[in-house]
C-alpha cells in the first residue's frame, strides 16, 4: 500500500475520531426477543448514517445472531450458560406469567411477578459479571474508544459498562413494573389520580374505586415491590466501581430515556425533558407480499383477511385452546393467516392457513387486511396502529394486557382472556372489529396521529443518540430532582419545618392568651374579693 | 371573466376549504410590545406556508400596526380607548413595576403586582367586550370560517372568541405569575422541591432555606394570589357563553401551549404532551449591518463592541442612572452601541454612541460583538443565546429578573440592580463577561444547545398550529387531570378514604384487643377469687 493511501486512510480514521457526528462508535447492551427486534431498527439506522455499531452479546444469545449478515459488529463474550439454557429459562417465565399467575389476590400476583423478575435479574447479573470480570474483553472495549452506550434499561449492565468505560449512555425502554426504574432513576412523575400504574389495565379516566386501586398499587410499588434484588445489585455495582453506590443511582446517570410508546398509544401524562417517546420507530410501509401469501390474500375477495400471531416468544398454545380458536376462525367469511407452530387443530377451517412465520408488517399494510388478532406486544400493536388495522387482543403476559387495555380505551380493539374465552367470544370479537365501523375509524385516527409528528420516531431516537455523542451527554436536560433525597424530593423536610413553625406559633399564642386570660381573670377575681 | 376561469377560482377556493394544511385560516389574538414581535414571526411563517392570517386588533393598538405593509390581514375593532391611553397605561405599570415595588416584604410586593395585573386585566376585559359585544364584527368573524385561533394567554379573550366561533385554539405564552394559568388551565406540574416558582429568581438546585421560600410562595400563589380579577372574568365569560363557566375552565380548553422558552434557558422540569417549548423561534442569522453601524463596529479593532438596549418598552432611564451607566461605558476599551432615547448623558465617552434604534439581532450576530447589556427580555436573551454572546443583565420588571437569574445560573451572565448599581459595578460586570473566558464558553454552550434540536422552534410552533387545523384539535394530548376537581387531582378523596379505613380498622383492632384483654383479665380475677 502506498504512503499516499496510508495517509488517506489515516485521515479517514482521524475524521472519525474528531467528527463523532458522522462517524460515532456506539456500544449496545441489548435484551432478547422483541426488544432486540426494536433496538435493531435504531442500530441499522445508525449504521446507515455512517456510525459504527458494536453489540455486546453472550455466546448464549437467542435472537441476537452474530452470524446473520449485517453491518452490525458483534462482541461475543463467553458465558457458562448455553442458548438452550436461556431459552428454557425464558419459556419457563413466560409460562408462569401466562398460565400460573394467581390473579385472585394482588399480593400473591405481584409476589409471583417479583419472583420471576428476580430470577430474570439473577440471570442478567450472571451475564453482566461475565462481561465486567472478563479483563481481556474490558481492555478491548476500552481500547475501542466508544462514544456512547445504548442499553435496554430492563436488563441492567449497560450503565455499569458505560461507567467503567467513562462514556455517557442512553436507555431504550418500554416500561418497568410500577414505573419503578423510570421514577427512581429517571425522575418521572406518576400522579396516581390520572396516571394508571402500568400492569393494572386501568385508563387515565378512573372512577373513585379505580383511583383507590391505583393509589394502593402505587404505594405497593413504591414501598414494597422490588423489580430486581437490589441488595445484590447494589453490592455488585459498588464492588465493581470501587465506591458505595446503588443500581438505581447508576441507572440515574442515563442521559436520555427513549420510551417505546407515543401519544397514539399512551395516555397523556407528565414527563421530563430527557424522556423521548419514540413508539413505533420500527414501523415502515408494507413491502409486496411473497407470491404464496399474495395469492392466498387475494383469494379472500371482498371479505379480506385476518392476521393472527402471538409474537416472537409464543408460537403455539395448548391443544384445547388451539381448537377453540380454530373453531371461531372457521366461522368468519374472511381468510385467516395464523402464525402457529403446534399440532394442527382438528377443526381448522378451510379459510385458515397455518404458517411458521408471517411477513407481519407487510400483511398488516395490505389493503385486504381487515383485522389483527394479537397477543398485544408493543411492536405488533404499533404495526397495526401504523397501518390503521383494528385489533382483537388476546394478551398473555408482561405489558400485553395493559397494551390491549390502551387500544380498547382508544376504541381500536376488543380484549379477550386466553384462558377463559370461548369460540363464540372470539367470533363475536372478530365480527365487531371488522363490521362495526367505529373500530376501523378509531384505528385510522391512531394511525393519523402516529404519522402526523414533527419528526419520525426513528429519526428522533437516532437524533438523541447522535446528540449524546456530539455533546458527550445531555446534561442540560437532567432534572435537579435526581440530586435530591426522597424526603427532599417530596418536600417532607420543608413541610415538617413549616408545620413545626405553625405548631410553635400556635403553642405560643395559646400560652400567651391563657396567661393573659388568667392574669385578667385573677385580677378581676381579686378586685371583686377586695 | 370566462366560465373557465370562474371554475378554476372555485376549485382553488374549494381546495382551500378541503385541505386546510395548505390553506388554513388563522385568527390571532395578540398582546402588545415584545409579545407581538414574537408572535409575528409565527404569523409570517404561516403566511409563507400559504395560510391566511387575520389579526384582531383594537383601534388603540401600539406596536401592532395595520398600516405596515405586510401580508397579515388586520381586523381592527373600534374601542373607546386611544393609542396614547394604552401607552400611558403600559408606561404607568412599567414604572410601578420597575421603581415602585416594595421589595422588603413579599406580601406588599405581590399585592402591588396583583394590583397592576388587575388594572391590566380590566383594560383587556374592556377590549374583549369591544370585540364580543360588537355583533357586526362577530358575524363577520363567523362568516370568515376560521380554522383556529392563536392567542397570547397573558391577555385573555382569544379563548372566548374561539368558543363563540366554535373552533379550536392554541396559546403562546412566556409565563404567568406563579405559573397560575399553566397549572390551573394547562395542568402543568411544579414540584416545589426543584421547580422554582417564577419571579423568585431561584435556581432548580435550591438550599433548604430556598426550598422553604419556594414552598411558601407556591402556597401563596396557589391559595391567595389572583392573576386577574377572576370573579369579574368568570361572570363575563358565563354571561357571554350562556352557561356557568370560569375563565380558567375556558382557558383549559387550549389544544396546545407554545411556551416561549426551551432547555437552553429553562431548568429541566416536568411538563405535559400538549406543552411545546419553542423558545427563540424568532431568532435568525445576522444580516449585514447598515453602513453607518458597520463602520463604527469595525472601528473598534481587536477590542470589539458592546451592545446595550433595554428593550422595546423602555427607551430611557433617569438622568442620574444614565450618567452612572455612561461613566462605566466610557472606561471600557470596547466601542459601545447604546439604544437610548433620553437626554444625552454629560459624561458620555467617545467610545459610546447613542441610537434611537438598533439592529439588535444583526449586531449580536456580528463577529466583533463581545457582550450584550440587556434588561433581560426573553426575546433579547434568546438572540444572545442564538449568537453565543455573554450578557450583563440589568433587569427591570416582570420575568426579566428571573430570566437574568437563569442566564446567571448557566454561567452566561452577570446581574446588576438598576436602582443600586454603581459605575464600578457595571464596569466590573462588563470586564468579567468580556475577559473571563467561562462566560463566553457558557454562552457558546447555550448556543450549541439551541441550535442542536431535532426541529427548529419556529417549525415546531407552526407544525402544531397546522396540526390543530388539520385535525380540528389535538385531543390525544389532553391530560385527564383537566377533568378532575382540585381534591381529586391531589387524590385527597382517595387518601381521606384510605385514612378513614385505617382509622376504623385500628379502632376495631384496639376495641377487640381491649375487649379480649378485659374478658381474659376478669376471668382470671374471678378464677383467683374462686
TrEMBL record, chains A, B:
GO molecular function: glucuronosyltransferase activity
Transmembrane segments: 494-517
Assigned GO CC terms: endoplasmic reticulum membrane
Broad EC category: transferase
PROSITE patterns membership: UDPGT
Family indicated by similarity: Belongs to the UDP-glycosyltransferase family.
Name the UniProt record assigns to this protein: UDP-glucuronosyltransferase
